[in-house]
Write a structure and sequence with these properties.
By secondary structure, this protein is mostly beta strands. Helix content is about 10%, strand content about 55%. The longest helix is centred in the first third of the chain and has 15 residues. The radius of gyration is 21 Å and the shape is globular.
């Protein structure tokens, strides 16, 4: 299919489906129950920044993040070489080191034949943070597959100045603050909206957290290295979160960018909720429009995500989740996925996450997958 015919055909999503998704989102957003984002924040240990060096969450854990892990059989990560508490501005330079290793095994069937079994070394990331008074320098490095070889790459590295406990300014390469920050980069609201595993950008970001409101605002210039020049997007993105009740929050993200080839605008509405007794929900509804810089070709994408979970124990998260992606006026490219899974914190340094996943794709065979992820933390 030619590039032009693809863009011109991409314009149709059933109105009933969109209405149903929006009603579901609004129902969640108006709930007054307690909240969680992502799901481990609901345990009451604080927001994402309490457990991660990054104010928006993700990346290597802080001292508090390691201390609040609830494992089944111990294996504490406290008082280990290289680990330092940087939560209070250190009067002398201090370093906190860490590592994140993710391994995946999968087997499945897509009606055309068996998939796997396959073993995938998803990520091996080493790094840390160095802090002195109000300054923090963060960086992590990992091996990236490029064709038949591997290169040393850094997904995130930035310098932060903290004005106080609620206001920080960062400059460097980081994950842009858009939508729900979740580790599964294959979800449609991440991968189809250019927030995949290697989709980070250089930028300047202001992070502010008040009593009821939180704002992340970033001006970015692209990743500068891994993409061709015509895909280097420059623009701005912001996420505004409103606390609802004791811990719940709803939020809105807006993004606008340009490159020499494409103009893009995107928006995301999010809800992070807990319903008591260890149950919670994460919901997101996102849309974006891409227009060719030359000519009248354009593409509108709709994506949604819903996760319903239950902490059967503090070390065991059982969940069901689903997602949808469609192009407006191009129903033949729609995709739906649903899954059942468990996140089990076996030891302080080891998490096991099995999942059963089914994905339907228009005009393609249904795909069934059984996955098992091992997550090693240092």
């Amino acid at each position: 299919m030619s590039r032009k015919s693809f863009w011109t055909r991409a314009r149709r999503v059933p109105v009933g489906l969109l209405a149903s998704l929006w009603i579901a989102f609004v129902s969640l957003a108006l709930s007054r129950s307690a909240a969680a984002y992502p799901q481990y924040a609901f345990k009451g240990y604080g927001d994402c920044n309490a457990c991660h060096h990054s104010p928006t969450g993700g990346g290597l854990l802080t001292h508090w993040g390691r201390a609040t892990i609830d494992p089944t059989w111990g294996g504490s990560l406290e008082d280990i070489w290289g680990h330092t508490d940087l939560s209070s501005p250190p009067p002398a330079p201090a370093i906190d080191l860490g590592a994140d290793v993710r391994l995946l095994g999968l087997v499945g069937n897509d009606s055309d034949g068996t998939i796997g079994p396959v073993f995938v070394p998803m990520l091996t990331e080493l790094g840390g943070a160095a802090a002195w008074q109000r300054w923090t320098l963060y960086g992590a490095a990992t091996a990236r597959s490029v064709g038949t070889t591997y290169l040393l790459a850094s997904r995130e590295h930035w310098l932060e100045y903290s004005f106080d406990g609620s206001l920080q300014l960062r400059a460097g390469r980081m994950v842009l603050p858009f939508g729900i920050r979740q580790p599964d980069h294959t979800q449609y609201v991440r991968s189809d909206f250019a927030f995949d595993k290697w989709d980070q950008s250089y930028g300047l970001e202001l992070d502010w957290r008040g009593q009821d409101w939180t704002l992340f605002a970033n001006g970015f210039v692209g990743d500068l290295t891994g993409r061709p020049s015509e895909r280097q997007e420059r623009g701005a993105v912001a996420t505004l979160l409103r606390k609802v009740g004791a811990e719940s929050s709803v939020g809105l993200s807006l993004l606008g960018s340009v490159s020499s080839a494409v103009r893009r605008v995107a928006a995301s509405a999010q809800a992070r909720l807990s319903f008591g007794a260890g149950t919670y929900a994460l919901a997101e509804f996102a849309a974006q429009r891409r227009d060719a810089a030359a000519g009248d070709d354009g593409l509108t994408t709709i994506g949604s995500y819903l996760r319903l979970g239950w902490f059967a124990r503090r070390d065991l998260d059982v969940y069901a989740e689903g997602g949808q992606r469609a192009f407006v006026d191009a129903g033949e490219f729609a995709k739906l996925r649903a899954g059942l899974g468990v996140n089990w914190q076996v030891f302080g340094f080891l998490e096991f996450a099995p999942q059963l996943l089914v994905e339907t794709r228009a005009d393609l065979p249904t795909r069934l997958l059984a996955l098992g992820q091992l997550h090693l933390i240092y």
